[in-house]
Amino acid sequence: xxxxxxxxxxxxxxxxxxxxxxxxxxxxxxxxxxxxxxxxxxxxxxxxxxxxxxxxxxxxxxxxxxxxxxxxxxxxxxxxxxxxxxxxxxxxxxxxxxxxxxxxxxxxxxxxxxxxxxxxxxxxxxxxxxxxxxxxxxxxxxxxxxxxxxxxxxxxxxxxxxxxxxxxxxxxxxxxxxxxxxxxxxxxxxxxxxxxxxxxxxxxxxxxxxxxxxxxxxxxxxxxxxxxxxxxxxxxxxxxxxxxxxxxxxxxxxxxxxxxxxxxxxxxxxxxxxxxxxxxxxxxxxxxxxxxxxxxxxxxxxxxxxxxxxxxxxxxxxxxxxxxxxxxxxxxxxxxxxxxxxxxxxxxxxxxxxxxxxxxxxxxxxxxxxxxxxxxxxxxxxxxxxxxxxxxxxxxxxxxxxxxxxxxxxxxxxxxxxxxxxxxxxxxxxxxxxxxxxxxxxxxxxxxxxxxxxxxxxxxxxxxxxxxxxxxxxxxxxxxxxxxxxxxxxxxxxxxxxxxxxxxxxxxxxxxxxxxxxxxxxxxxxxxxxxxxxxxxxxxxxxxxxxxxxxxxxxxxxxxxxxxxxxxxxxxxxxxxxxxxxxxxxxxxxxxxxxxxxxxxxxxxxxxxxxxxxxxxxxxxxxxxxxxxxxxxxxxxxxxxxxxxxxxxxxxxxxxxxxxxxxxxxxxxxxxxxxxxxxxxxxxxxxxxxxxxxxxxxxxxxxxxxxxxxxxxxxxxxxxxxxxxxxxxxxxxxxxxxxxxxxxxxxxxxxxxxxxxxxxxxxxxxxxxxxxxxxxxxxxxxxxxxxxxxxxxxxxxxxxxxxxxxxxxxxxxxxxxxxxxxxxxxxxxxxxxxxxxxxxxxxxxxxxxxxxxxxxxxxxxxxxxxxxxxxxxxxxxxxxxxxxxxxxxxxxxxxxxxxxxxxxxxxxxxxxxxxxxxxxxxxxxxxxxxxxxxxxx
DNA sequence: GAGTTTGAAACT
DNA sequence: CAGTTTCAAACTC
Length: 937
Prior knowledge:
two-stranded antiparallel ribbon, disordered N terminus, CRC domain-containing protein, nucleus, DNA-binding, mainly alpha, two-stranded parallel sheet, CRC
């Protein structure tokens, strides 16, 4: 808020996308190299690498100044290329290592004040991981905690492998340095020496062994992280496995040697299946570390998780504070740590339940990425006002304001635009509005992406978040760079920015725009009475400041009036938490083709307007219709009359839904049958839609293109910060509704959270994760799960972030692990302690889809009490009570299932430390199912 | 460019 | 919650 320009500048969704894309692009190259990325890629046709990169990129990106400064995770300006650099450096330069050490130090220092030992340890992990990371800029590092994590995971894997093979003395040195830094404070004098002795990549581990019991927990986490990396390596690189095996051997050696605890390690290894050995070995180390072989790893993990939870809380708090100190590296670092911790937390939980399955590991890395993505999304979005935790990631991708859409369309097509935006953002810390404008202007310089033609728009929208980033990715990786001209424009305009537009005559501006949209498609307002402080104003509604092109009068939607804007925004959000959420959501239309008879039914794009239109006379054939304007088809959520939407008629949509339901894919035919009101909950469901104020959001990307959305989805994840977790999930194959809101509004019922609810929540998370990882489904499209539904409840959502803290969170995480990877971030289940998660089935039914498809059957079986709790939709009108998720027919999406199997494999290694939910057997059952599946595999 | 139409947002 | 009013964009001329 107070923060510097960046914070002030509103971030147009488009700009956000651009930034995201830029970040992504920057990071892309490195990620690809990482084993993690490889792993991901192996999993799905979609290149996760990019996703991972994206995430990193997000982290790294300096968040464009949002109109609504919110505590962004990424607020700090960072070198966008950091992620890439990091990845590259991971490859092994000593210099890099040393630098990373330095960075770590700086980070550590910065964190010291804020973070507890645990945090330090986290940092350690990060640091260790990041040994390979480029140190180029501490700021960068700090700026993108998530990236760091990602890089870390990737780097760590690589490093470990390399080191294990023959030790890179240099790497060892780097490790030592890191260790020194880390442990120096702890008085571990001899550790360094020992660490040096451990030349193999395990040096870190050995060091950890020395750590005190307190450190053990942290170490465990680290080990887990390493284990994850290892697991990733396994999955991704068989060759790497080889290295890992050697590494494991080393572990065995070390274990006994150092602490005499080696027994545990060796035993561990022996017991474990080959592929898992690596991971387990690490765990064994953890056990050994304390010298307490007896200490159950899980117990430690629990503690660690708790610590992490505390961390996460801290993080949230930081996040809140952050807005103010956005610029400070320390803060960013803290956030990063927090994020990391959150991820680790999840990881820990997962480890407990599943004992670090490879998938879990991947999930972890993914989680980080997701976090990054979420952060990115947040950046893109207008941001939450004060609470980072609450801030909802608005997935720039799928959930789009109409303005955003417009922008997106232009951007999406080429990715060039997105790049432009991103670069523009990079180049300038100017306000988002400026950025937007720049983008617009830039568009001229660039080859203008084809104007969004109706058909194309949808895809564009979808692509906005994801595709843009990816395209940027590719382009950047390819060496694509903005043209100097473009850069000039950006920079220059950035400089001028706000003032310009203020003084510009509206007429001139208007001329410029001809439409309300700039050439690029950025909308500009022409408000006269509302001061651009109401949702009538497209700029305001989009969370961006009015800019030059605007011809508004008496505009207060400017950086100068940031406070006013924020206050107004808050007020509006208080009325409707989703008021600022993107209007267009892309449903994850992942359903299996087989299910997809309806493929056509929907508009060219599966995207839908979250609330739907209410057209009476325009027949949805004019821009009066928001659906039409967004180039999306009408859906059940629409109350239009005489719909003739060329993108998809509501009727058709409904019919399709019904067909799908009848086909049995959807056990409940609620979609079509439902009263409109119920259907409309879509808004709530939209991940993107969550306003910053709103409880959280997560974000998923709504990509209009499934593929795109998939990509996006990865990128967008529930940010740890966001209290409300919106689960983005790929639309289950079964739900035909992909449309509007795939979002699921989870509303916690005031009653107790049933295990089922937890499971569901987990399942959602998992589903999302799965979708991302396996299906690559457009998370973007996923319906986001919003825990707090109604505005009144939105506040409750704030508590979501605490889910992790919530004792239940563990169960959730464990459950998640069982089911899939619960994203560490996912606060969902935790929603209010007492509340049950209710899946609102949005018109999209995305939630259902997710549940059905992604959810383990167990979860499905669990009957969720669908509490008719109405998620208050911002509109109030459209929120429908959640439907029973369990009822959804389980249509398995192939990919998802595969994902499940994957996870299952991981599970067996450890006894479930914490049953998901003791109360109900559903979780356990699900676990059993997983195990079975695994055994089958 | 002015005026009309339209539907969302805001208000009651 | 429904109905009405206000508003600004979209549209027409």
